[in-house]
Automatic annotation (TrEMBL):
Protein name: Pyrimidine reductase family protein
Entries under NCBIfam families matching the protein: PRK14059.1-1
Pfam family for this entry, one: RibD_C
Species of origin: Leifsonia shinshuensis
Domain Bacterial bifunctional deaminase-reductase C-terminal: 34-241
Superkingdom of origin organism: Bacteria
UniProt keyword Hydrolase, yes or no: no
Listed SUPFAM superfamilies: Dihydrofolate reductase-like
Amino acid sequence: MSEVAIDRIFPLPAEEGIGDARIAESYSAGAGSPWLRVNFVSSIDGAATRQGLSGGLSDDADHRVFDLLRRLCDVVLVGAGTVRAEGYGAMRVDQVSQRARREAGMTAHPVFAIVSASLDLDPASPIFRDAPERPIIVTTELSRHDTREALAEVADVVVCGEERVEPARLVAGLVERGLRRIHCEGGPHLFGDLIAAGVVDELCLTVSPTLEAGVASRISAGAAPILPIGMRLAHVLQADDTLLLRYVKRA
């Protein structure tokens, strides 16, 4: 199967059929250090899922960019609910991405960081058993001590808050470990918390050309920030009727 064609239509001048290196360059432009990027897919009528899963909205173009964004980061950050619902396994990238990461002085695979207040995670899961890099679990003071000890056998367990995970502490903790390029893949409640804390630097949004209706959730949920956070459109990529948007926080 031939690789799906992706064109850049903004900023001008437009470019047709751009390759992976050019796409990665487009997503890297202007990114600071540290930097927290969030990636989601949504239908054109605002649904974040189809039959309860975001994967149902994704297409070949979204998969291609999804993989490239993992290539660019130090750590992939995901809420435990999304990990369970979407069936995550160990955090691995393909051989092409491994080579590109090594050439950039990075580890072959990004670190997997999972946010879980309840610690409803199985230490025997392939997420931990097959991990090429030791995962991180971010939790709260209220989580069970015995469960923390069990998970500490297979991951670094980090407490970042008393009753709730505090996003600013979460980000600071990852940066202290040298994980400065943070790539968040959801879910909506984690994204909402990150927005409310003002720590989101970038949103990458794939707009799937479908109308879903129903009761699907938005890409963010939970508490709102004191004031709306202004974002600037950095680029627009197009693959047939799918749009791949990149927004960065206004300075």
